[in-house]
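Protein in question kept underneath.
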Amino acid sequence: MSQIFTPINQVRLTNVSIVRLKKGGKRFEIACYKNKVLEWRNQVETDLDNVLQVDQVFINVSKGQLANKEDLMKAFKTDDTAKIIREILQKGELQVGEKERSQQLGNMYRDIATTVAEKCINPQTNRPYTVTMIEKAMADLHFSVNPTKGAKQQALEVIRQLQEKSIIPIARAQMRVRITLSGKDGKRLKEKFAGLLTKVEDEDWGEEYELICLIDPGNFRPINDIISSETKGRGQMEVLSVRDTEDGDEVVS
């Protein structure tokens, strides 16, 4: 009796989302679960096992044809399959139908606008923007969504472009933090903090030095690095809130 068989270099898959990357003159593809690729790129999903249908690289997923090791090594300069898959997943193009693509881009556009609205305020009124207002500003920018980049990364790009082109007055919402140091460290480090603080709200000198202030979110790491390196673990910084309104209402981090 004759038998139907699948060659060992072929894998048949169904209900799959394909991510394709052209590199070194070759086409490489990976087979993913639907809706999981964008979740991984947006860092919602971090477990590759939940993204990939199979942890192998193909030259054609639809036909089940696997890529050979020689082509992979030539194109990616490594035989580490996990590393290759991550590069394809990050840089490759998600193959979807036109209707599905339009819906995904629309959802990402909204996610980007939501992220910008959450992170920023109008510095003239010290009040937040609505998502709809940010979407309109993005339209004025003629901003195009890049499906290979995460929403957070693109939101930072939108903020930069809105500031550079003065589409709307916009600034990052300020973080309120509490810095606690020994009195000795406080006297020594106060000047180092000075250029990194937006506003000092309260200072308390004693055996311990306590400083409550507003900072730009971009200065959080530099300040924390100073505290860590200069106090050898004795000092600390605590995020109290992110201020977003003029009358003192706050969104707690």
Notes: DSSP finds eight helices and 13 strands in the chain.
